[in-house]
Design a protein that fits this description.
Layout (H helix, E strand, L loop, with lengths): L8 E3 L16 E14 L8 H8 L8 E14 L9 H16 L2 E2 L19 H12 L5 E9 L2 E5 L18 E14 L8 H8 L8 E14 L10 H16 L2 E2 H4 L10 H18 L3 E10 L2 E6 L10 H7 L2
Parallel strand pairs: 2-4, 7-9
Antiparallel strand pairs: 1-2, 2-3, 3-5, 5-6, 6-7, 7-8, 8-10, 10-11
Helix pairs in contact: 5-7
The site of one zinc ion has 4 residues, from strand 3.
């Protein structure tokens, strides 16, 4: 992805004040490493008829399949060694190449790993979720994983975190998570004006600055919707992706796109359409319908400009578990 660097490092903020130890030995840190591969796949279950496969998986069911340029981000954590590293980067590169990219690059995923052998009743479709999980299984014995992100394309990616697994204790010792975070990205253009109607223009200017100017202004909003759920053992899916995309399109993009939010979207005739309030409203609109798809809305991220974004964690009890590893994955 644009802007992502090969390595991102996050030193834990809770680290006690510096005691001068050689090269940071013993202090905790998360590092990330990016890798890329290209592969094809096909969603087609032998127990379903041709028509049923087509209804269920749409164009993804077409023979002989289609391909993606995948991007994998591996987050690893642990104390620094005497050389000032979590682990030697050449070992990281070697493990990712040997266990993942050398085996998958330029391959048809359905024919690669036994996890995707659909003639076996235990086999799973090679979805982004299933692929990310299979990669976790293969890397975990070699690297101290704290998170994995797999982009199928710029507007679709999956995160796996050990915290998703109820029995997770030591991350890499725990089995591969059976829950995944699936994110989709879309966009809409809209205008708004930030002002509270009970205040004077001068008072609104003082609070909202240029955003309070009387005739409004516009943004090209980028909207990321993240859902969380168990990976279904046969389809390899957290939820029906096409249905999720349709929900976001029907409930958010279509009613919001090319509007003046304050006037055209009823909710914002009463509520100041700050990025925060728009993100909250989107979360409120999507929570119920996404539950109807068998997943849970985890997060809404609304980017208003290159300089500001708002994030709403929709799973309230989970708010305090915003995983540090996830932050490391998105940094860069
Ligand atoms: Zn595909
Ligand atoms: Zn604005």
């Amino acid at each position: 992805m644009e802007g992502l660097q090969n390595r991102v490092m996050t030193v834990s903020a809770s680290t006690p004040p510096v005691q001068l130890r050689t090269h940071g030995a013993g202090r905790p840190c998360v590092i990330t490493r990016r890798a890329r591969f290209s592969a094809s796949h096909r969603y087609w279950l032998p127990e379903l008829s041709e028509a049923a496969n087509q209804t269920r998986f749409g164009p993804c069911s077409l023979a002989p399949g289609h391909g993606h340029n995948y991007e994998l981000i591996v987050a690893m954590g642990g104390p620094l060694d005497a050389d000032g590293m979590v682990l030697n980067l050449s070992e990281v590169k070697h493990a990712i190449r040997a266990e993942v990219t050398a085996q998958l690059d330029f391959r048809h995923l359905n024919d690669t790993w036994p996890e995707f052998d659909l003639s076996d009743p235990q086999g799973m479709l090679p979805t982004t979720e299933a692929l990310c999980r299979a990669i976790w299984t293969r890397l975990a014995p070699h690297l101290p994983l704290v998170g994995l992100r797999l982009h199928e394309q710029a507007d679709l990616w999956v995160d796996l975190l050990p915290a998703c697994h109820p029995s997770a204790t030591a991350p890499s010792a725990a089995p591969a998570p059976m829950e995944a975070f699936l994110s989709i990205r879309t966009h809409f253009a809209a205008a708004h004006r930030l002002a509270r109607p009970e205040l004077t223009q001068a008072e609104n200017d003082a609070i909202y600055g240029k955003c309070a100017r009387p005739h409004g202004h516009g943004h090209n909003y980028l909207l990321d919707v993240t859902v969380r759920g168990a990976i279904e053992p046969r389809t390899g899916m957290v939820c029906d992706l096409a249905a999720l995309q349709r929900l976001v399109e029907d409930l958010v993009v279509e009613p919001f796109d090319h509007t003046f939010l304050n006037k055209d979207v009823e909710h914002f005739s009463r509520t100041v359409p700050t990025a925060e309030n728009i993100a909250l409203h989107i979360a409120d609109l999507l929570t119920g319908p996404i539950a109807g798809l068998g997943a849970r809305l985890h997060k809404v991220r609304l980017q208003e400009s290159p300089n500001n974004a708002a994030e709403v964690f929709a799973e309230v009890p989970q708010l305090e578990m915003v995983p540090a590893a996830l932050e490391a994955l998105v940094a860069g």
